[in-house]
Amino acid sequence: MPLSVNQPMKELLLIVIAYLIGSIPTAVWVSRRFFGIDIRNYGSGNAGATNTYRVLGSRWGTFVMIIDMLKGVIATSLYILIPFYLVPDNEWPRTNLMIGLGLASVIGHIFPIWAGFKGGKGVATLFGMIVAIQPVVAICCVGVFLLVLYLTRFVSLSSILSGVSFAIFILFIFNDDVTLYRVFSVLVALLVILTHQKNINRILQGTESKVPILKYRDRRRQRRKNNQ
Known about the structure:
By secondary structure, this protein is an all-alpha fold. It has 11 helices and no strands.
């Protein structure tokens, strides 16, 4: 099926819509509506799920994470509105558009027009994007995230290593043959590392906060230490 004359305009419109979807500042709206505060004035100052966990608790942190992931899934799936990309033979151009839509939503999360262009780090939205494009790889990245989180309780370190593992999965394990997707995987790893520079410094300095999970396990370990 050939491209229509006005298709580039449709694609540009979808990218703008994807950016606007990504710009929905879930953490900011939740903190203002239910707590009367701006989440960006507390904790790490980021409007993302990790800081929401830290400041507002696990229930609201989980809610923000799910909504931010859905932003990535929905924005990346906007390609279905253009019939050309529904044709099975158009897998490569479809993947390219999905990457463009997903990146627009991630940029929207980091620089949200609805919240003064000061948002979060985009990890949850980025993950939602990966779910829409490569669900199997996304599951593998979740496995890395949960394993690191279980071992360290650092959400930031879990995010960094799952982002790096995404590139490893695409380049070496699944060996995806879409060039743009391979380049994208490397950019994802670099983006996650760059947006977590402060977290990396705090981890090295021993001042990074841990999420309040597995507290019973930690209490048992502390009791064992005290009994030795």
